[in-house]
Design brief:
With 165 residues, this protein is α+β, with helices and mostly antiparallel strands. The protein contains 4 helices and 9 strands, in the order E-E-H-E-E-H-E-E-E-E-H-H-E. Strand 6 and strand 7 form a beta hairpin. The longest helix is centred in the C-terminal third of the chain and has 12 residues. The termini are far apart.
């Protein structure tokens, strides 16, 4: 199966109102497929002590400033997998600082910083969603299914997203 999804997983509850775009809670809940099919501004779910943020428009995923604002302490993982465009990667943050980022497009590294993590050793070939889903499990302890099976509360942006919000 192919995927076209991305998001951020944060090790603790997140004040969703602090996400870029100053979103507000719509009170609506959806499954992960509906969040990305619509798309919604954000879908927020909690599983195993981690907050899963579905981010169809890349407002917070791979946005170092936004991650620092919502997760200045603890760990966070931005991730993307798009089988159609063969774009797959992750960014690992600790205490708001990006420690490792690697993104592949069409089998080639297009963005890389930081030293490889020990969790990357022996991971599946980094050219598919299998690699991303394995890194989600290895780094957060949460499997892709934990986030995919969760119910997401929908948040909609009230402001344009800029570097400051």
């Amino acid at each position: 199966m192919g995927w076209k999804v991305n998001g951020l997983i944060v090790e603790r509850p997140v004040d969703a109102a602090r996400l870029p775009g100053r979103p507000r809670d719509t009170g609506e809940t959806l499954d992960i497929d509906a969040v990305y099919a619509r798309p919604c501004d954000y879908g927020i779910a909690v599983a195993g002590g981690w907050t899963f943020i579905a981010d169809p428009d890349f407002r917070v995923s791979f946005n170092d400033y936004a991650v620092l604002q919502i997760s200045p302490q603890g760990r966070a993982l931005a991730w993307v997998t798009n089988s159609v465009s063969t774009l797959h990667g992750f960014a690992w943050y600790v205490d708001g600082a990006p420690l490792r980022r690697v993104v592949y497009a069409e089998g080639e590294v297009v963005d890389e910083s930081g030293e490889p993590l020990r969790e990357e050793a022996l991971a599946p070939e980094p050219l598919s969603e299998d690699f991303v889903f394995e890194m989600i499990k290895r780094l957060t302890g949460q499997g892709w299914g934990d986030g995919a099976d969760a119910v997401y509360r929908i948040w909609t942006c009230t402001e344009e997203v800029t570097a400051e919000n």
